[in-house]
Write a structure and sequence with these properties.
This protein is of the alpha/beta class. It contains 16 helices and 22 strands.
């Protein structure tokens, strides 16, 4: 079948495609031309309950499926994505304002993630451990957690939904997915269609399209899910994490960032400029790992800034369907106005706008704020758009201090000719991830991904996802009889 918004803009609950029970609707809007792509009646709390009940029931059926058959089903999902790559690209461009380059990048990440998750059914390994008691053994079984609730964001929704959905399914769980209201299809029902076509049991994966005004905290507080996996802002993540713990559920939180990109005086400046540009402006800077703060050592600061400005000035802004476009629209008007306020605040505080782009509707042209200091509020914010702070430093110690002057701790990058020096500096920066002579935007299917401080809780990818979406059950076997003291 053809993948399009009219077909996919439906609830996917208990294996059925239908409207939500609410009379309220959500419009799926193209952020570039503001065309209404589709409209859907949103899910109610009753729909949420049906979805969780379906996932719990189907999980019992999934338990009976042979591990190799589960692997085959997940591999079919990867094949389906490969066969429909062009259609998925079109969906990403129209729903997210993503460029063709962004779509290819995101789809590549998704394929790797699904292929890694396909190995999970064959990795549900346990252990047999000795006992302090005679004639007894201790068995540890790795078993699915149960049902997982997934809440995904709008920026890389296809990947960031799949990053939890595929491993959770591979580890034997049922799943209910709630995508962001600005990415209903690419973050939600597209994934439902992929696994439906792959052959998972009906109801194992459910997708509910709704908003918080309709359902409140029901998605998190519902008694069935054992894990809530959330990707999004730190403010919302904090609320969800507290709700989850209050209800004795495990929260997995991938939250905001304020990554530092450090350029030492011995760095290859041209390469660093290209890496810094990619690290900030990919998908309009709407990535949690994007480099918000570019730190340049004073001896090369002016030269780097001049080259960086020249490079950024060449980035084409416009229609994401144009293959030459690098920067398309931000996701909504609210985000554009937030960026406008941040830019004005930075300039008022003394930042030098060496490049100041126009903001018209959802189109935000690149802005470079130079000579930013840690005292300026703009250096403490997550700038979720094509706006960047450039900050000077003198010594290695000062660079580390500036990098750590944030409540976040997600990613970062260091550019230097001395690789081991880069590694030693990396160890002193409080982030979950950091990259030497590379970009700040990195995600690989078998490497631990996650943040420190207010950038999140838990680790995903590879063995870490397997650990997060399963639990260890201890079953002891006494082959004899224990002697009792009374």
């Amino acid at each position: 079948m053809t993948l399009n918004f009219e077909v996919l803009c439906k609830q996917f609950i208990a294996g059925e495609w239908r409207d939500g029970q609410s009379s309220n609707t959500l419009k799926n809007i193209n952020p570039y031309n503001e065309e209404v792509l589709a409209e859907v009646n949103i899910a109610t709390t009753a729909d949420i309950d049906l979805a969780y009940q379906a996932a719990a029931k189907a999980k019992l059926e999934w338990d009976k499926v042979n591990a190799y058959k589960k692997r085959d089903i997940l591999e079919k999902a990867a094949h389906y994505i490969e066969a429909h790559e062009e259609e998925i690209t079109e969906l990403i461009m129209d729903e997210l304002g993503g460029t063709r380059l962004k779509a290819a990048f995101e789809i590549g990440l998704v394929k790797n993630m699904v292929k890694e998750a396909a190995t999970f059914p064959l990795r549900m390994e346990g252990k047999i451990l000795p006992s302090t008691e005679d004639n007894k053994e201790n068995r540890l079984y790795r078993i699915p957690a149960g049902v997982v609730g997934v809440i995904s964001p709008f920026n890389f929704p296809f990947f960031l939904s799949m990053k939890s959905v595929a491993p959770a399914l591979g580890a034997g769980n049922g799943v209910v997915l709630k995508p962001h209201e600005d990415s209903l299809v690419t973050g939600g029902t597209l994934i439902g269609k992929i696994f439906e076509e792959a052959g998972v049991p009906k109801g194992l994966l459910n997708v509910v399209l709704t908003d918080i005004k309709e359902i409140g905290d029901t998605f998190v507080e519902h008694p069935i899910p054992r894990i809530i996996s959330f990707t999004g802002s730190t403010k919302v993540g904090s609320h969800i994490g507290q709700l989850a713990v209050k209800n004795f559920k495990k929260p997995l939180l991938e939250l905001g960032g304020n990554s530092a990109f450090i350029v030492m005086e011995d760095a290859d400046l041209d390469y660093a400029v290209n890496a810094a540009t990619f690290s900030r402006f990919t998908h309009q800077g709407q990535i949690c790992m994007s480099a918000n703060r570019i730190l340049g050592q004073k001896s090369i600061y002016n030269e780097f800034l001049e080259k960086y400005k020249a490079k950024v000035s060449t980035l084409k802004v416009g229609d994401p369907r144009d293959p030459e476009t690098i920067i398309g629209p931000v996701i909504n008007h609210r985000q554009a106005e937030t960026l406008r306020t941040s830019i004005e605040s930075g300039i008022k505080d003394g930042a030098n706008p060496v490049l100041k782009g126009n903001i018209s509707g959802r189109m935000v042209e690149p802005t470079i704020l130079a000579d930013v200091t840690t005292e300026m509020s703009v250096s403490q914010e997550e700038l979720f758009g094509p706006v960047v702070c450039v900050m000077p430093f003198e010594t290695e110690e000062e660079a580390i201090s500036i990098a750590n002057n944030t409540k976040f701790g997600l990613s970062g990058a260091i550019h230097t000719a001395n690789l081991e020096r880069g590694v030693e500096i990396s160890k002193k920066i409080h982030t979950g991830m950091i990259h030497v002579n590379d970009v700040s935007i990195n995600d690989e299917p078998i490497v631990a991904f996650g943040g420190e401080n207010q950038s999140g809780l838990g680790r995903l990818n590879g063995d870490w996802s397997l650990d997060e979406f399963t639990t260890m059950k201890w079953i002891s076997v006494n082959y004899g009889q224990r002697n009792f003291p009374y």
